[in-house]
Amino acid sequence: MVMVNRGGFADWRMRDPHNMRVADMAMNVAVLTYRLTKRLPPEERYGLTSQMRRASVSIGSSIWEGCGRDTDPQFLYFLSVANSSTFELEFQTRLTHRLRFATTAEVRPLIEAIGSTTRMLAKLKSSVRGSE
Predict the structure, then answer these.
(1) What's the CATH number of domain 20-131, 3.40.1440.10, 1.20.1440.60, 3.30.420.140, 1.10.1740.10?
(2) pLDDT digits over 77-105, tens only?
(3) What is this structure's pTM?
(4) CA nearest neighbour of 117 among 74, 94, 85, 77
C-alpha cells in the first residue's frame, strides 16, 4: 500500500472510516435510532420518525463523506456537519421522551450513544486541527 499525505494526514489509515471508532459509534447510533423509532406511533412516520432517522444517518454519512475529502478543512467541515446532526438527534430523542412516545429506559441507550459520539467527534476535530 502506498502512503498518501491527504491534506495533513501522513498516514492513510487515519482517513479510513473502517478504522475509526467514531464511525462505528455513528453506525451504532443509527441502529439504536431505527430500533427506537419503530416503536413510535404510526402518525409520526412522516414527522418525528423520519426526522430522527434522517439525522442519525447523517451523522455516519457525514463522517464517511469527510473521509473521502482531500484536505483537513474539508474533513473538518463534514465532522462539523456530523456534530450538528448529533445535537439535532439528541433534541428529537428528548422530545420523543417528553411526548411520552418512549420511556426513559428506552431512550437512555440512544442518548448515551449520542453523547459518546459527540465527544469522539470533538476529540477528532481537535486532533485534525492540531495536524494542520
Answers:
(1) 1.20.1440.60
(2) 999 999 999 999 999 999 999 999 999 99
(3) 0.87
(4) 85
